[in-house]
Every structure is written in structure tokens, then in C-alpha cells.
Amino acid sequence: MKKILFLLLLVAQLAHSQYNTAKPWAYWWWMGSAVSKEGIKQNLADYAEAGFGGMHIIPIYGVKGEEKNFIPYLSPEWFEMLDYTCAEAKKVGLGIDMTLGSGWPFGGPQVNQENAAKSFKINEINGIFELKIDNTNQKVKRAAPGGEGLVVDHFDKQSVQNYLKPFETFFSKKNYPIRAFYNDSYEAYGANWTVNFYEKFKKLRGYDISQYLNILVKNKAETEIEKRIWGDYNETISDLLYTEFNPVWTGFAKKYGKLTRNEAHGSPANILDLYAQTDLPETEFFGSKSYDIPLYRQDPNYEESRFGRPGNLVLKLASSPANVVGKKLVSSETATWLGNHFKVSLSQIKPIIDESFVGGVNHIFYHGMPYTPPNEPFPGWLFYASTNFNQNSHFWKELAQLNKYIENCQNLLQNSKADNDILFYLPMYDLWQQPGPNNQTHAINVHTILNEGMFSGGLGKLAHNLVANGFSFDFVSDKQIAKSKIVGKEIVTEAGQKYTAVVVPKTEVLSLETLTFFKNMAQKGLKIYFENQLPSKVNGFNDWQKRQDLFEEMAQNLGVNVSSNLIQSLKNENVKSEMIAENGLSYIRKKTKTGHLYFITNLANSYHSNSISLSSIANSVQLYDPLTNSKKFVTFRKLDNGKISIPLVLNAGQSVFVETFDKKVEGVKISNPEKVLTNKIEISGNWKIDFLNGMPYLPGSYVAKSLQSWANNSDTARQYFSGTAKYTIDFELPQAALKKAGFIDLGDVRESAKVKLNGVDLGISWCLPFQLNIPQNLLKKSNKLEIEVTNLSANRIRFMDKKGMPWRKFYDINMVDINYKSFDASGWQPVDSGILGPVFIRY
Question: Cβ distance 282 to 263 under 8 Å?
Fold first, then answer.
């Protein structure tokens, strides 16, 4: 039996390895599951041509007027379409994932009252406390036709098994070639109890919590006993997701040789442990943020106070357990609500991709692409909360450029291993000592975690300080510590990942098991640092006084470092750090078979050119530009401290890979340091602008003496135009510039530019900074510049709303704007379009 199981797993892994995970994948919403074979075939062909690696099917609410085409979810007809999709996807080299449900979270018509999510309420009558259990009655959000129903009880194994029975029915008859099953972010509102909770609690915690309903009725724990009871309650809720939910659905996936993708965030649990249980931990880059990159635009209507601020600490909650337990891929739901509909540009997307890579993500999933029938007029079928990446997007023609950039990056990131030095203990027991704000539970909501959640206080400050001072770390849980070993002067996790130090932020409550591990570390001379204080309390209520005495006795002779300035303590002990961050750059360092790999991105505006030091021993160094797909070996200096120094020109918005080699690479050409091009000439004169293609109608050509938005003109056709215009100008250059290599700086571009100089195609500029290289010998005395610029579709949708043209035709939430108000573009001002300049030749 073991041999058969091994062979099944081997076959599954070989099948999975055939998929291209370096290319970006995307959420693919089947609206009403109103898909046709012809539409599926055309959509998949388009996606493959645009440079995608795969699609993730999510059945969702439908489109009004398409009711006759709705295919009930989990019907034989639905699985016929799934079968056809998998076959067509294979033909064009795409993989297919699917949600194990409709909308989110798990739930549907197969969930009865007994198996539905539950909550508790405690009533007091004459000093007697009575527990009442009710169903939350939450239904699946954004359900597809046929997928409507109650949310399942995530804390009960049998309920989850019953939920999966319809999937079992079909997959047992035919094992459809899905790559991975998916579980969306945990949003089971109000769920805080389950069937047989008393029995499950007693088995896990060793006592009867029914005797302490007088404590569970409270909204604040004040006494020592109350805090311990609440700590046990919250830990039990966490353990039930770990033992009764995750193993059931992941076990179902493994039975059929599928991988699992899981968004554990939102769960009232230690999400590090939940992420670790799945093959592909998935995080989320939700919302908009400001980058200090010249000309970068943040959507001004995004409400950070309401929806939170994304950041790479959030991403590390998924990438850390992947590193600790040895997962190759870390995926991310990317560009959710990055900006308002019809207003998101590729230049806004690239920085969040770069920050995602820094946070440890290496398997991008765009959010996303609604299936749209091939002949559906603009704007097609739309999902309310996404950046639209499908064929109706204004950046569809240029999307292949971003996709290729991501593929170039992820090829390297997926074929290297994490190289972080520090384990950062996540103090969940401290959090669990109080009833949580979400119906007594502590849901780890990544949307607001930086504003008002776990990272909003001292914990987040310490993590940010570590990053700012070049210390690389992974978050770690108690369960993961328990599975680690001490080998020599390193902590080695169950996956063989090695770390040289542990950091414990200000923590009050700790388990005896974790304290024992820390003591063993200290006794063997390993580096462990406690911020400000030692933990003073053992976790849990059962037999707590005896365990507390043992805890205090152990803590007295712990022999660890307690520091009020952890950063300085780490520096004093020579814990490995990088000075890259001190230069204002963001990075991730990884290990390769031949040395180290750094992905470095400039998401600020403090660094432009200098020499940077790297904490890697090297005998050869190579730079790789994933945007241009160009490599070169460069000169470098070896420093006295064992580090190396390399010259680096990296403007705001740019990124580069630096690969170091332990052994000298023979037979390669070494390039001289890149020069900063200080000579520049502004291109000015009469710009001829011709509108090539677009909607709602083509404006007439015109000549402009200065560069400004074409939508600023009183010509209403230009105000509403969405499409491509061609800028043409003839210009003269001085003798000193002729035949010189350099680049063209287009200044402010709205939104992408295809450039020809003297008839030579320089490429497409779609991200910040808007620059393209000029090869040697191309610049002449008399020159001709041609630039084809494509703008956003915002002005076109403004026209449609002003005219009352019907396009909002979706069920459920229909269309809302970025602040969840009814979408209406009729009151928008014209969005800037074209080249705003100034345009320079730099040489």
C-alpha cells in the first residue's frame, strides 16, 4: 500500500512539474458558469498568447440576460465544461486550478443546519450561566448559481467531510487533471463554536470549560484565571482549524494527486501553522499604497483607514512557513482593489509585484480575469473587486510585457532557496489572553494588520526595524519550533532550513516546551535575543500553578540575551546583515547551487547610483535585468570584512538581480561599471498627434507645441477617447550626441508607449521610469521620433455613463467602486492621457 501511495504521489508531482509556474497565473471567474466550449477555447488561446502559465477557476454570480446559459455549479454539465477546459488548457500549455467551492468561504447547498457554521451566546439567569448555540446563518459570498447555501462549520471534521461529498462524487468517477485545489481567505463571520466543542476542548486542554461559562460571557479578561481560560479557548479554536479543517480538505486533494493552495489569513488561528499544512501558501496584496517613486500614482479614493495598507510583512506570514517547512512556491492574490475600475495602469502594478517578490512571493496570481464571451462588447463581464486583466482591459496589448518580466523574475526566484538568518517568534499566546474583537476570536486579518492588528504596535515596529537594518528573518510558530533541532551553532527546521539566531519580541506568555527549546539554545551557545524582558507566564489553565513554578525556575537560569535595543545587540554579535536596506533599497537574498542570488528593487527615491556591499563571499558577480532580459558580469571589490562591494546604477522604480558565484566563472567578459548619463537634451518643437484606433470615436489630428494631456482639450472627442494615438516629431541633435549610446526618457506617460527612433523600434515602455535604451550609432544630426501611446479606458466609461449606456448588468453586488459605493463614472473629470513629458535624450 505504501508503494502504491508513493507511486501516486510521484506521478502527481511529475504532472505538476509540467506546468509553467514562472509565468503569472490568474483568478478566472466563471460568471454564472455561463461558459461555452467556443468561448473557453478562445479565452485560453488568448491567455496563452499573452504569456500566462495557468488559470484558477472560480464560479461566481451571473450576468443579467444570460440566465438561459447559466450552468448549475457541480452539475454534470458543469463538470463537462471543466473537463473540456482542462483538455484545451493542456493544448496551449496552461495549467488549471479550481476553488473547492463557489465564491467564498467553503459552503453551499450540501451544508445543512447541522453542518453549518456556529456561534455561542451565554445568558445569565439568577446567577446561572446557560450556553446557547446558534447557526451563524452566513451564506456563501458571491455564490454561483447552484452554489448558494450556508457556510460550513470549519471546526468540525465531519461537517467538512460532508461538504466535500459532491466533489468526491465526480472526482471518484474521473480524476480531472486539475493542478491544485484552492481555499479562499477565511471569512466565516461570527463562527466561534462547533458541535461537541466541550469534548474537543477537554481532549486538547485537559479540563471542562463548561464550568467556566461565567468567564466566557465576559468581553474582557481581567484576572489571571480569566486570561488563562481565554487563552485556552483561542488556542483551541486555532487547533481545530489545524486538526479538523485543514487535514480534511488537504487530504481530499492528496487522494486525487492534487496540490493545495490556501489563503489562511482571516483565520482565528496561528496562521503560520495553517499555511505550513498546504503545498502552496497563498497571501494577498490587497489595496493601494504610495511609493516614493517619481510619477507613481496611488488611487486617491482608496481608504487606507478602512481597508488597510499592504506591505511585505503581511506577505512574510505566508512565505515564512513556506521557508521553514520547505515549500517551493509561495503564491499571492495580486492587485485586488489596487485602484478604481478602468483606472489601473501597468506602471502601478509593477511596484507591487516587486514588493511581493521582496516579501517572498514567487508565484503571482492576478486578481483577476472574468471569463468574457469573445464577441462581448466593451467593457465585457467584470468582477467587482478586481483589477481587470482580461481582453477588455486597456492594457491587454502590453500585458505580455509585464508577464514576461514576471516570468524572468520567477524563473530565478523559484529555482533558489531562502537564505534568512533569523527566526522571529510570533507571540500568539499573548494575543490569545483576551477575547478577540471578532465574536470573541482573533481573526488574523491581513487587510488591517498594519493599521490596527498584530503589526500595529511594538511587534510591527521591531519587524520593520529588522528589515530597515538589513536583517533577514522568517516568522516562526511554537509548533514549528518544536519540530526544529539544534545542530552545531544553528537551528535546523524540519525541512533542513538553517538559522543562526532567534528573536523574541516583547512577550509575556510562553509554553514550557518553547521555553525549554530556548534554554537548550542558550546552553549550546546559540544566539537568542529577548526584547526588553523575559516571558513571565506559562500558557494555559490546566495545572497551571505547578507548570508556572517550573517555568519560573527555568526562566531564572535561562542564560539568554535580554535587550532594550535588539538591533544593536544583533550588530554587536555580528549576526549577518545587509547594508542594501540602508541605501533605501528593498531586497531578498536567496541561495543557489553556485552562490547567492539577490533581487534588489528601488521602491523609493533616495538611491540612484553608488556602490553597495553584499554579505556574500564571491569570486564572480553577474547582474541580470529582468525587464530587458540582459546579463553581464561586472567588476567588484572584496572588502576586509568578507563582504563584497559592487557599483550599481538603479533609479527609482527599477529592479535588478545580483548573482554571486563562490567560484570564479571562467571565460566571461567583465563589464566596466555602468556610467551615470549626465548629458541630456530635451526634445521640443511641434508634436503631431494622430489618433490611430480606439473608442467611442476617433478625434481629429492636431499639432501641439507643448506636451500635455490630450483629454485637457476642449474637443469632447479627445476627452472621451480611449485607445492609441501616435506622436511624431523631427528634432536636431548637436555634434556631441551623434552616434552615442544612451536612452530616451519619456517623462510622464499615460500609460504605455511604443517608440521608434529613426525607423528603429526601441520597444515598449510601460513601467516607471519610462525609459528605453538607444543603441550606439542610431542618433543622427536630424532625427525622427514616433511614439504610439495607449491610455486608460476611464474616459471611455465616463462617456458611457454620461450617455446612460447599459453595461452594469451583474447579479449580487453588481458594480461598486473602490469604496463599495455604486459605480458611476459620469461625474469623473477627464483622466490625463498621452505623453505629458518632458522627453529627453540622455547620453
Answer: yes
695 in Cβ contact with 378 (< 8 Å): yes
Report in angstroms the alpha-carbon separations of 762 from 377, 628, 742, 778: 33, 11, 12, 11
Grid coordinates representing 115 are 453542518
Distance CA 124, CA 103 (A): 38
**Integer Cα distance of 774 and 784 in angstroms:** 13
CA distance 359 to 503: 19
The β-bridge partners of 118 are 135, 193
60 within 8 A of 23, measured Cβ to Cβ: no
Identify each DSSP E strand in 360-416 by its residue range: 363-370
Can you give the pTM of this predicted structure? Answer: 0.97
Residues 6+ away with beta carbon under 8 Å from 47: 26, 55, 92, 94, 369
Residue spans of the chain under pLDDT 70:
1-17
- Residue 366: φ, ψ to 5°: -70, 145
Q: Are 347 and 395 within 8 A, CB to CB?
A: no
User: Are β-strands 752-757 and 782-790 bridged in parallel, bridged antiparallel, or unpaired?
Assistant: antiparallel
All cell numbers assigned to 386? 478586481
Whether cis (ω within 30° of 0) applies to the bond prior to 177 is no
Which pLDDT does position 13 carry in this prediction?
52
How far, in Å, CA of 280 to CA of 261, rounded? 5
Cis peptide before 32 (omega within 30 of 0): no
In this prediction, residue 640 carries a pLDDT of: 87
Please say whether the beta carbons of 563 and 504 come within 8 A: no
Q: Which of 269, 284, 444 is nearest to 355 (CA)?
A: 284
Helix (H) or strand (E) holding 510: strand 509-510
Residue whose cell numbers read 448549475: 72
Res 17: pLDDT:
65
Which residue is associated with the grid cell 468517477?
173
Q: Which amino acid belongs to residue 797?
A: I
User: Distance between alpha carbon 510 and the CA centroid of its chain, in Å?
Assistant: 31
